[in-house]
Amino acid sequence: QACQNERRLDEKVPQKENGTRDVSTRGNTQYALIIGIDQYQYADGNSLINLEGAVNDAKLLRDALRRQKVQVPDKRVLLNAQATRAAFIRAWQEMVKQAKPGDTLIFTFAGHGGQQADVEPLDEKDGKDETIMFHDFNPNKPTQGRILDEELYGIFKKASDYNILFIADACHSSGLVRTLARPWRHVRTGGFWKIEPDAPPPFPPLPTQSDNAPLPAHVTLITG
């Protein structure tokens, strides 16, 4: 049985009789989902390398948020092998379900960011989609183990009843690459991947939304 403060993803914010939003029932709790990946399952030291520092960054963020009384249970701190695409989706959905409209959802990612040839809805001016790459990203199956910018935009838009803070410490997270003057193992770029027309779709599936529009008002993005 659902807890009293749980809501479905598609549940509407309570409305007053005059049709305005009833803010008296809105929440002010902060929840966080933290991901840090140094070790990649299919790292080969060439096309995909392991990192140093991403897990430490995630732990520092976890501790800082907990000191501020943000709700960060261990099950929403995904490090290395715990941080798969499927695990992220489960943790995100659980966090959204736990929160009330008006609450703040914080998602932090430290790990590889990559690019691939633009796929539908073909909205990238440079012809490239940006991705964040999870532990199970496979260079031989580059549609798996990663999340596209359109997918992130889609899940954020669907959670429009909440305030969302997304903190991304990965290459291409804001369209810019970290300076290569730093030691290579510290540069969080996952490279550029060609997607074949018959490549299987990512699993589990997520809603997608063109990210060519301005960032929704309920979403704040911080990139590093």
3D architecture notes:
With 224 residues, the protein is α/β, with parallel strands linked by helices. It has a single domain, classed as Rossmann fold (3-Layer(aba) Sandwich). Helix content is 17%, strand content 21%. It has three helices and nine strands. The chain has helices at residues 54-67, 85-98, 149-158, and strands at 30-36, 77-79, 104-110, 113-117, 128-133, 146-148, 163-169, 189-193, 219-223. The strands form two sheets. It has a five-stranded parallel beta sheet, with helices on both faces. β1, α1 (54-67) and β2 form a beta-alpha-beta unit. The longest helix has 14 residues, at 54-67. The protein starts with 29 loop residues before the first strand and ends with a strand. Mean pLDDT is 76; it is low at 1-24 and 172-193. It comes from Candidatus Thiomargarita nelsonii. Its EC number is 3.4.22.-. One of its GO terms (molecular function) is cysteine-type endopeptidase activity. Keywords: Hydrolase. Pfam families: Peptidase_C14 (PF00656).
What coarse outline follows from CA principal-axis ratios? globular
Number of helices: 3
Any idea what the CATH architecture is? 3-Layer(aba) Sandwich
> Which percent range fits the helix content?
10-25%
Order of helices and strands: EHEHEEEEHEEE
How far apart, in Å, are the first and last alpha carbons?
40 Å
The biggest beta sheet reads:
5 strands, parallel
Determine the mean pLDDT: 76
Residue share in β-strands: 15-25%
Q: What's the arrangement of strands in the largest beta sheet?
A: 2-1-3-7-9
Give the count of structural domains: 1
InterPro entries: Caspase-like_dom_sf, Metacaspase, Pept_C14_caspase
EC number: 3.4.22.-
Protein name: Peptidase C14, caspase catalytic domain protein
GO cellular component, one term: cytoplasm
